Amino acid sequence: MMFGKLLAAYLIGSVSGSLLLGRLRGVDIRTLGSGNAGGTNALRTQGLKFALGVVLIDVGKGALATWIGLQSEPDTTIALRLALGCGFAAMLGHVWPLFHGFRGGKGVATVIGLLLVLWPLLVLPMLAAFALALTTTGYVGLGSILAGFTMLPAAWWLSERALAIEWWIAGGVVALFLLFTHRVNVQRLFAGNENRFDKARLLARLFGR
After folding, report:
1. Other Cβ atoms within 10 Å of 158 Cβ, number
2. Among 94, 118, 142, which residue terminates a domain?
3. Are 112 and 12 members of one domain?
4. How far apart are CA 205 and CA 96, in angstroms?
5. pTM (2 d.p.)
6. Domain termination site, one of 85, 118, 151
7. Based on the domain organization, do 198 and 96 belong to the same domain?
8. What is the pLDDT of residues 180-198, one digit of tens each?
9. Is 152 helix (H, G, I), strand (E, B) or coil?
10. 82 and 114 share a domain?
């Protein structure tokens, strides 16, 4: 039962929003822009409506996979662990999708889907960290990495004592996973040639005046 749920979660995660919608449009965004099959590259290369569709699918599959892990598990701790495992399996499917040659996105939207099912409140500090980084630096990748690491202290302070260790481990896994999937962004940041959304640097322009 547990293995079946994890496998199903991985297969759900392997359904890439950008590649699915791209086929309907006749494009493969992995050949455009940064080459990443995620929401940011979808926005840059295909526009806002397309990117919103991508994000909805990628968040939805993370939520669905996590929900599957919760089913038929009366023990709260076991249910949480299995749901987290299914959410992580969906993240793996998103980054290395079976249906798309193991070339997918970076997993941020799928993480959000996981949290929306298990702990919606935890999304708020992560989004705050992302927004702060984006509006000051314009770097989406940096914002995503910082959002992932925000999950560590947030999970520690906000979780119930009985489940704190599960969320602490989950926060560490998510943070390191997002750091890994954004490793190219980190390399470009150090090299000084990372892509930047200058229009998003609202705080930088506000305080720069």
Report:
1. 14
2. 118
3. yes
4. 38
5. 0.89
6. 118
7. no
8. 999 999 999 999 998 888 7
9. helix
10. yes
Name the 3-class secondary structure at 4.
helix
pLDDT digits (tens, 9 = 90+) for 132-171: 999 999 999 999 999 999 988 887 777 666 677 888 899 9
Distance between first and last Cα of the chain: 59
Q: Which tokens belong to 113?
A: 């889907």
Cα–Cα separations (whole angstroms), residue 208 to 130, 136, 195: 20, 10, 21
What is the per-residue pLDDT across 33-58, written as a single tens digit (0 to 9) for each? 777 878 888 888 888 898 899 999 99
Q: How many CA atoms lie within 13 A of 53 on its CB side?
A: 15
Domain boundaries, position 30: 1-118
Cα–Cα distance for residue pair 112/191, rounded to 1 Å: 29
Distance CA 11, CA 92 (A): 9
Q: How far apart are CA 97 and CA 95, in angstroms?
A: 6
Residues 104 and 11 in one domain: yes
CA 201 to CA 183: how far, in whole Å? 22
Same domain for 108 and 187, yes or no, is no
Quote the CA–CA distance of 96 and 161 in Å, as a whole number.
34
Are 129 and 192 in the same domain?
yes
Burial class (CB in 10 A: 0-12, 13-18, 19+), 191: exposed
